[in-house]
Amino acid sequence: MAADALTIIPGAVLRNLADKLYEKRKNAALEIEGIVKQLSTAGEHEKISAVIGLLSTDFTYSPQANHRKGGLIGLAAVTVGLTSEAAQHLEQIVPAVLSSFMDQDSRVRYYACEALYNIAKVVRGDFIIYFNKIFDSLCKLSADSDANVQSAAHLLDRLVKDIVTESDQFSIEEFIPLLRERMNVLNPYVRQFLVGWITVLDSVPDIDMLGFLPDFLDGLFNMLSDSSHEIRQQADAALSEFLQEIKNSPNVDYGRMAEILVRRAGSSDEFTRLTSITWINEFVKLGGEQLVPYYADILGAILPCISDEEEKIRVVARETNEELRGLKADQTEGFDIGAILSIAKRELNSEHEATRIEALHWFSSLLVRGRAEFLAYLDDIFDPLLNALSDPSDAVVLLVLEVHARIAEEYHHFHHLVSYLIRTFHNNHVLLEKRGALIVRRLCVLLGAEKVYRQFSTILESEGDLDFASTMVQALNLILLTSTELADLRSLLKKSLVDSCGKDLFLTLYASWCHSPMATISLCLLAQAYSHASCVIQSLGEEDINVKFLVQLDKLIRLLETPVFAYLRLQLLEPGKHTWLLKTLYGLLMLLPQQSAAFKILRTRLKTVPFSENLKCTSSANPYSQILQVTEDGNRNQDAPNNNAINFSSRLQQFESMQQQHRNHLKNQLQSQKSASAVILSQEIQRYEEAHSSIPEMSRPPSRPSRVVS
């Protein structure tokens, strides 16, 4: 075939086609164009094939650069000469040209672009069958190191785009795999090239780029973090256009794209995160049932962004979170409550308070939406929720308590919660001191003060650590006496002597309040069981009145001046009717050091008591002695109707028994400390003796001779 071609094309033409001068090669190409026109007119297509074969084999694949250049311009001339009949020979022409795109010589690559440009102008849509190969070659040439080659490639690229947009033979299905593969390239020139093609193809009405968006969406988002501002802008513009199309399209594959958006929402690039969250926001509004299986993944992307450093991201993330939580879905639609709870549990460990708060809102929402389904996963989330009670944020702790309150509708969950709180306070006294009041008060609001205090008391009654039990009871007692949330509970306790519910509550609390003498006295003052309070004071021994006791007594005296005990102070206006109250208060006064502020406060208050003429007075004008002169009848009648309701004798025995346990515990502690000190001292002596026994005999100081007495 090559021999036939040599007879068709004169040798001089072939020599000029391989000349180093462009003009000679151009003139030779024009002669070849004329020869091919004559052959085409004569229908000599076999000879034309022979000429193409000669140009391809002996020229475009030649080791000589000028031969390759000549071969390329020659193939373009053949195509021009064939005009409308060129399509049937493209199979021979195009591969030879495309292979030259990768030539080592930049001038050869340039002439390859020029040749294909001229070929494309002639055949137009007929070369669409080679589009993927041409696109792949242009993709590589767009990043060519030679500026002239890049320029030529851009011209060719524009022509190919024009041809594709007007062609009805372009196959988007065959093109998308290649586009998806190229989207991972990082070269900025290639990225510009790819975005340009995506934009052009999307503008063609007959090409459904939106349907294939999931295949290259990740690549577009990847370009948002490019170092080139121009590329970021182009990618953002393309994404904005697609998002607008999604809003206007009834058929969109939200699922596949949601997976990509979720992944990109965790990007380290701020612009990428913002764009991802914006898309997710629109998807949540538009996706409906399609997004139900992806709720957990979307939530996992949204919650961290709620605490993003960028305000715009935080705003969109919060809006999206609210939209997502407001959507209605059930298990039959693929709603996986377990997966969502897993995400919420994970975000409880977030370092950001806002994220932890929103995670807790999800717990509450899911618990309301489907309690039975929620409780099915309780074993997995209960401990993390309990641990969250130690969160450094008050807002988080309050929300955790709300979740626990919803869970604690069943008794065993409620018991578990209170037991855990007591155990946590036992292990973390700082938490009890700083957060104890907040936690207990909030629980009382959510679950009912009486229910909460009864449960605390029941568990603390059998607490083995007596020191902690005393501390915990003192804390609960202080909350009881000071918190506005417990006003109803205090009102019920005031009726302990006349109301069965008040009596039952008093007895329940009394069992654990016995751990603290001052808490017991406070409880009696609340319940207006003044005679028993006086008996409790009288039962105190020397070892009971220590520094801790006096500190608690000081607090109580100051609390007596607060509105909580206003009723008690008003009762002092009738000393004849409330003689046991007076005796109790004087008993407390006698326990206080005279120089203390609490002593002065209480003494000042007692000085204002208007003693009745009916009280027997001694010859002394001392008002303190008057209360001690109460008749036996008055003592016996005081609180008489109330004592029938509560067996205070048994309560006093219960109190004394508990206090004896505390005394024994204190003695054991002191004994242990003494024993430990003795052991340490013994060890020190032993080490001292061992150290001195190792000193050599000669090194010791000589002993002084004994004095001889005659």
Structure commentary:
Helix 12 (213-223) runs antiparallel to helix 13. The protein starts with a helix and ends in a 17-residue tail after the last helix. The chain is built from 38 helices and no strands. The chain has a domain at 1-170: Leucine-rich Repeat Variant (Alpha Horseshoe), CATH 1.25.10. The relative contact order is 0.03. It has 710 residues and is mainly α. The model is unreliable at 616-644 and 697-710 (pLDDT under 50). It has helices at residues 2-8, 11-17, 22-42, 45-60, 65-82, 90-99, 106-123, 131-141, 147-166, 172-182, 188-202, 213-223, 229-248, 254-264, 270-287, 295-305, 311-326, 337-347, 353-369, 371-376, 378-387, 394-407, 411-427, 429-447, 449-461, 466-482, 487-494, 500-513, 517-527, 530-539, 547-559, 566-571, 579-591, 597-607, 624-627, 632-637, 640-643, 648-693. This is Vacuolar protein 14 C-terminal Fig4-binding domain-containing protein.
